[in-house]
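Q: What would this complex look like in 3D?
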Amino acid sequence: MQPSSSALLALLALPFLGAAFAPLVYRVLGERTAYFAAAVAAASLALVASLFGTQGTVAVPWIPTYGVSLAFYVDGLALLIGTLASGVGVLVFTYSGGYMHGEPGQVKYYATLLAFMGSMLGVAFAADLIALFVFWELTSVSSFLLIGHYQDADASQYAARKSMLITVAGGLFMLVGFLLLHVVATGVPAVDSAFRLAGEGSILANADTMVGALRAQGLFVPVLLLVGVGAATKSAQVPFHIWLPNAMEAPTPVSAFLHSATMVKAGVYLVGRFRPLLLTDEWTLVFGILGLATMTITAILAVAASDIKELLAYSTASHLGLIVAGYGMSGYLGAETGAFHILNHALFKAALFLVAGIVAHEAGTRAIDELGGLASDLPLTAAVTTVAALGMAGVPPFNGFYSKEFLFHAVYYTAEHAVADGGSVLWWLLPAVAVFGSIFTFLYSIRFLMLFFGDKPDALGEVHAPPLAMTVPAVVLGGLALVVGLGGVAGTFGVHFTPLERFVGTVMESSLAHAGEGEHSFSYYLPTEVSPWLIMSAVTIGVGAVAYPFFDGIRDGVRAVRDVDYLRPNWYYDGTVAGLDRSSAIDVIQTGNLRTYALALSLALAALTLGAYAAAGVAVPGLAFAGLGPALVVVLAVAVVGAVAVAAAPSHIAGVLTLSIVGFMVAIFYILGSAPDLALTQLVIETLVLVIFLLVLDKLPAFYGTANRLRAARDAVVAGAVGLTVTVTVLLSTAAGPDDVIAQYFVENGGVPAEHGPIFADAGGGGNIVNVILVDFRAFDTLGEISVVAMAALSVITLIAMRERGEIQ
Amino acid sequence: MSADLAVSTTHVVVAPMLAALVTAVLTLGTRRYDRLQRVLSLLGIGAYGVGVIVLTTRVLSGGTLTYQLSAWPAPFGITLVADALAVFMLALAALTTVAILIFSVAYVDEEGQRVSYHPLFHFMLLGVSGSFLTGDIFNLFVWFEVMLMPSYVFVVFYSGPRQTAAALQYTVLNLVGSALMLVAIGGIYATTGTLNMADITRRLADPAAFGIDPAPVLGLSAILLLVFALKAGIVPFQFWVPPAYRAAPAPISAFLAGVTKKVGVYAIVRLYFTVFAAGVVDGGLGLPGLSGESFLAFFGPVLFLMALASMLVGGVGAVSRDNLDDVFAYSSIGQVGFIVLPLAVVATIGDHSFGAAATDLQVLGVIAALVYSLNHAVAKSLLFMVSGTVFDAADTIELDRLGGLTTRYPVLSGSFFVGSLALVGIPPLSGFFGKLLVFDTGGQALAAGAPGAGLALAGALVGAIFTIAYLSRAWTKGFWGDVTPAVERGEQSTVLVGVVAALALVVVAIGVGFDPVYSFAEAAAEAALDSEGYVDAVDPEVVAHE
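A: Here is my prediction, written as structure tokens for the whole assembly.
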């Protein structure tokens, strides 16, 4: 069934409208704006719900001349992400009503958070590559503002900037990937609209042809990698995982939202969305390695965490790694893993972040070492944590267990088949690493759970009961996670939780490659027979349980390795960014000395111009001395001597005087060349310049200072190069003989009227064509030059009037 | 009757220049009556805007307009050519300078305004408009001078030691540039026998018919490129940019970065893609590493290196500066790299010879440069004016002394945020489409197998990451954080904040309503690449020779 376009467009507009009205609403409702925002989210959730069971595209033109439209596509994957964003949104806004009590900047907070939710809905439903990118970047910008919510804190500033740098930069890589995809799609006739990602006549609808075309142009791997960078930065995959732990500087409801339903889920969404198009051996290699490496490394780092939100942050990166690895594997198992774990992770992780917020709020600390035995004070929260943390650990029958089983199955299957097909035994590393990483997941999950059990440290003061607005959302999420887990238990007995299974099935279908992954209906249940992947789960839990008593030792060991230089998660980021922020490299170029700049200009002139002459293969005409009379020879010789003397002048005065020798020789040259008007002008200028220079020099120190030999030699070479450039230019210009229609036109038409007789023209040398040209043919030039002269006068006035006003700015 | 009608249609070509010139003269004559002077100045910029709008509508609906001054036929007199490219640039200038002038009236101190600010402002605008409209290469030199002369004064306007030093460097480098421009123009006249740009194009396309040797013109046009690159502040001619932008009053920095720089960009597009593109070197370019015969095949790699170097120098410079104006000045160097890069890419992708239709990719590259220019004009002048407003309120623009601006001045900070995001290229702001089109040009060139396209994309990505780095740094250091005493003490000016906020809305509007902007830029790009159409529009007289 085709989705209703009004519902879809309303869904995308609603959160942004809510954001725009937030300031007004705040004036009326004050802190209860939280419930306004929750209502907006609930309305969005209702609209998403109304789209269930539909599939198809809705498009509104945006930039038709460039082929961009605001197109949206509804399918299982889009609905899953949309449901998470709006559903978790309702809970997060409600929770904020309690958590943000008395906090600063609430208008900005709710407006940005609503825009954040709207952007995520946009990402989920966008079917146009450009529209997808628009919403993608908006999630980055809104999360920048939210992470920097406590803007006075250095840590918030650092965290916000880091997330912006990594995710926006990654987005640009993705944009390049999209544009390459667009170029290739333009050449595929079956694709109607080359920016259209999903729906009829789209890129995904023609996946096989598209891959063929991409490969033919050698662009398949570049596109795969560019889109991969976009997904990896957003979803905090190694080595871009480093922004996510810092993002915990945001208020806790934001963290819960960002980690479970928005922002980081955009990355895995992208992987799931592009899987049908790009699934190949390269895909499996890239995303399999990326996902498993992230899953393992960040799980180990989570063990080393000292703050409960830091632990959860690394855990998020780890679970996103699991999802990416799942989508990386071929076959329906891979798609199943990704689809189901997106849902499961959202449920348990949102719940755990809300728990973390309750703990921080009521116990007054987030330090793991300072917490313990909270169950007595927070029984309900402890129950939620039990369900969620065991789900996170992958312990049956909680929800995370099932999707982890799918991953184990998928990687085992991939390795088995790859080796059977003659692949390297290294493929067996996939399941091995998956189990290894999962052991750490088990460890930190249990550590988090143990915050509620055991002895309560003496230092921990009174723990208050949280307000209802904060408890209810956590309980709802925990309850949903429990339901999903119990659904598997029921499934074992043949009682399937059909709506859920069917829905996850449609999510899975969105990521199935059309070729070769076949029909498969999704269902899940507790394993009833021993299989390699069940053994993998057993090993994970068994080893984890045996190792848990040594948790502190393991943690200290991990910390020791983590704190070694170059192994620190942040060393590359901090090194580069701090290095650039404090770099003085630019001072090597911008020395502040005019002579450096003149040198660069001169060298560039010589290189560029002589290079162009050489490239064009010009023949430089020889110097023709023959026509020079003795008078000219003398004049030019004196000019040359004058020029040499300028360079060698020991003082300003001597320099100016010798310079004027050159100038006067040029004036004489003009006279000899029958250009008396030019000569007069030149003489006036030379005289004036000389006088003005001498008056000014009176105010300056007489001594030049001495240049060292090396510098003098360098300057001589540069001066020589410039001289050569200008000489060649003049020789080429004077040797050229284009037709002279313009000159002829003036001569023919500019003659003196016949009644004056020929004598005037003959003896006077013309009817003063020059004047006519200046004041009529090229009067526009003259107008401009007059303006310049006027401005020069105005400049003098300005300099005098503004003098003594000193440094106003 | 019909002749009169024709005259009245083409007269509109000079309308913007006339508005600027008359306003300059009137404000010069009313220096004693400063209120009247300011009113005249504002009315004048309004008239300029109206002139540009009327001219733009005429050109977009009816095609290129030419105006032969004093009715002398081309190439004997001077021709003004208003084609889609010229009016695109005029529209960019009008949009930006209206905001800048309103800002100036509230920002520059009264004595400064009275002395010379207004006449110089309008003369500068006259020079800019003349440069966009002229179809004569010597006349271009004249308008360059008209544009430069006031800018010298503006850089030294506050007359402190720092301003004097900056102005000295700025003036010396630009005077050298002017001298070189004259050498080049003289040489071009000597080798091609004409100054009319359409005539030069025609002659380069068919050198034998006019008895000219096109080979030396390549070298002469290389000298000109240096001059234009100096105006646009492209590496290695960027040296004057940071000190000058920092020394000048904030609205003038906005003018220089937003508009004057674009004159250099325009000149590169006009002369190399319309005029010199017609030139061909017989037997191909004879330097290792170069291939092809067109002049553009030589300039492509040159522009390419300059663009990459600009992005790098601008980025490394901006990310380490602790003064808002310095950050924006280095940023301008980097951003102009983004403008030149697509031009370089499409200049390299094969010959665009006279008479042949430009390929879609060439059009796309020029559109990218133009859209990026438009965004930079609006967003960067917005940012410089934010810096001016901050200075007006807090008496400092040193990042170390700023903090908590968002708390104290939310609207101003919001405008800065929008301007910054536009420079970064965040959708749906104006800057997004600039970045998008630059990347698209690179991507299409890569798909077409053009050499260096991959490097261009990599360079653009690195440059874009630098942009995020320096703007996020300025934001977190200056706008977030604790409110510093300087920020606490100050008081914001409503007019200044109003202008800045209005420009922020323009940045959003250009992005959201991008479709007409794209069409306009496309028309401009097609005009820029249509050498034959340019010659036909000017129609230099064919004088039978021998």
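A: To summarize the key features: Residues 11-529 of chain B form one domain. Residues 314 and 339 of chain B are 13 Å apart (CA to CA).
Q: Very helpful, thank you.
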